[in-house]
Specification:
about 90 residues, alpha+beta, five-stranded antiparallel beta sheet, three-stranded antiparallel beta sheet, 2 helices, 8 strands, about 15% helix, globular
């Protein structure tokens, strides 16, 4: 078993709390979301979304680890653009 990438704790924490994903101003509900554990490999897909134009967006552990934090919950993914993980709120 290869182990080449350690998950970044900041992005993993936000990924695990996400109900919605905002990528390049497009609000999406993840089709698949996996919070990595100690056995995750860099090529494991952690997030899958279907864009509004019908194309699939798959993000791997390596891609999320290469993201640059921009502040206020935003990350710059070199090959995909700006990503934010969002939570739905419940009003009582």
């Amino acid at each position: 078993m290869k182990r080449s990438v350690e998950p970044r704790s900041d992005i993993v924490l936000n990924l695990g709390r996400a109900d919605l994903v905002l990528i390049n101003d497009e609000l999406l509900r993840p089709d698949y979301l996996l919070v990595p554990d100690e056995n995750a490999d860099e090529d494991d897909v952690l997030l899958e979304c279907t864009m509004k134009n019908g194309t699939a967006l798959d993000l791997t552990l390596a891609e999320l680890n290469s993201a640059r934090y921009l502040g206020e919950g935003a990350y710059l993914l070199p090959q995909h653009g700006v990503l934010r993980f969002l939570q739905e709120t419940a009003l009582h």
